[in-house]
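Task card 7
Instruction: Convert sequence to structure tokens.
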Amino acid sequence: MSFYSELIDNIANEAEKTNPYANIVYGSDPPIKGICMSETGVGPIQTHLNKGMVYDMPVVLNGKHDDQQKLLDDLTAIHVSLTRRTSYSDISTEACQVVDIATTALPSIIGREQNKQWVCGSSFNVKFYWRK
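Output:
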């Protein structure tokens, strides 16, 4: 398992502590009445000789549900839970230390599918030191 996958798993596990309507799966297209999370690319933003490199990892958090309010409420709760923390030690891995998670796009309705499921998209950015 790559450390990116481990990091996403840790973030998803922490997000599930908000008790959303569904377990979070990996990917960018959520299943019916589901929630998904996926990184969209990772790149270094700074190099520190004594700490390794600082990276930004954009992450999408999307969902589908027939109850629009439930969908928005649960994705918003996940954003609030992840971004208002003062410590990320339980999300960090052996390979990387998470230093910040910030919302880049609040949960918003993208549309509605033929099966009457509302589709909601959002994103946040994970900043971390890569220790290796």
